[in-house]
């Protein structure tokens, strides 16, 4: 990748994007869902700002990052671009101020303290409301309960209520990563089906919470079949990451 000229990298990203969009088209058709119900969010983590710039040139409008240390300088370098930034990683409260300088949405809201910190910072900074998604930890429905982040399904509604009532925050929906352990391990279809049930319950009390953020490079078809509205795709667009994160 580092040896490619910018024109070559642009061509590579164009090809990869077209392939991912074709997969999304096919998955929507298979699920009899309108194509415009699904938004592609490109996860640019570990890749340079120059790639984000090329993606914007190719029409990408939604990008995601999972570490503030990498995302903050990248967002600063790209602030002239018409991009919406999604934060999808574990968020420590001491990073909230930095993240809220660029992120329009946080997909990884998973605890009360984080809700309080986000709300306080939005109010203090006077910025526009930030969209919040409750991250659901589907693996926590197991006795082992090994956490990849996310609140237990039984606690989603209480946390959603808190977000909805918090000044400066908007409850946009729910997010999950297909679990590696527990009853849904290696079964993304069932995992995302469970997420869809939870999403629907949340929408029952909060009709505006329409986002279901699910599906990555390996399982976007299963996510779209289960009703995902936002797929988060890294590898299939940018290539395999040098380090696992
Ligand atoms: C890295 C990451 C993705 C993208 O994963 P790929 O398999 O590279 O498509 C999606 N969601 C989250 C939360 C991530 O951290």
UniProtKB/TrEMBL annotation:
<feature type="domain" description="Alanine racemase N-terminal">
    <location>
        <begin position="16"/>
        <end position="242"/>
    </location>
</feature>
<feature type="modified residue" description="N6-(pyridoxal phosphate)lysine">
    <location>
        <position position="45"/>
    </location>
</feature>
<protein>
    <recommendedName>
        <fullName>Pyridoxal phosphate homeostasis protein</fullName>
    </recommendedName>
</protein>
<dbReference type="Pfam" id="PF01168">
    <property type="entry name" value="Ala_racemase_N"/>
</dbReference>
<comment type="function">
    <text>Pyridoxal 5'-phosphate (PLP)-binding protein, which is involved in PLP homeostasis.</text>
</comment>
<comment type="similarity">
    <text>Belongs to the pyridoxal phosphate-binding protein YggS/PROSC family.</text>
</comment>
<dbReference type="GO" id="GO:0030170">
    <property type="term" value="F:pyridoxal phosphate binding"/>
</dbReference>
<keyword id="KW-0663">Pyridoxal phosphate</keyword>
<dbReference type="InterPro" id="IPR011078">
    <property type="entry name" value="PyrdxlP_homeostasis"/>
</dbReference>
<dbReference type="InterPro" id="IPR029066">
    <property type="entry name" value="PLP-binding_barrel"/>
</dbReference>
<dbReference type="InterPro" id="IPR001608">
    <property type="entry name" value="Ala_racemase_N"/>
</dbReference>
């Amino acid at each position: 990748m580092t040896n490619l000229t910018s024109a070559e990298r642009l061509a590579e990203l164009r090809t990869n994007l077209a392939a991912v969009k074709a997969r999304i088209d096919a998955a929507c058709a298979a699920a009899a869902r309108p194509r415009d119900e699904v938004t592609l969010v490109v996860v640019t983590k570990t890749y340079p700002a120059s790639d984000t710039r090329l993606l914007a040139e190719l029409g990408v409008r939604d990008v995601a990052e999972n570490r503030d240390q990498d995302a903050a300088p990248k967002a600063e370098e790209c602030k002239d671009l018409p991009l919406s930034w999604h934060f999808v990683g574990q968020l420590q409260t001491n990073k909230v101020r930095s993240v809220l300088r660029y992120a329009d949405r946080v997909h990884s809201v998973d605890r009360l303290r984080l809700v309080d910190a986000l709300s306080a910072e939005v109010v203090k900074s006077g910025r526009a409301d930030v969209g919040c998604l409750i991250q659901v930890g589907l693996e926590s429905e197991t006795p082992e309960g090994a956490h990849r982040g996310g609140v237990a399904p039984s606690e989603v509604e209480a946390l959603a209520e808190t977000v909805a009532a918090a000044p400066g925050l908007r409850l946009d929906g729910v997010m999950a990563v297909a679990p590696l352990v527990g009853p849904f391990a290696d079964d993304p279809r069932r995992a995302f089906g469970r997420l869809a049930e939870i999403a629907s319950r949340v929408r029952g009390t909060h009709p505006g919470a329409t986002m279901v953020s699910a599906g990555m490079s390996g399982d976007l078809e299963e996510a779209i079949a289960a009703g995902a509205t936002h797929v988060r795709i890294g590898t299939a667009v940018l290539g395999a990451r040098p380090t696992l994160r």
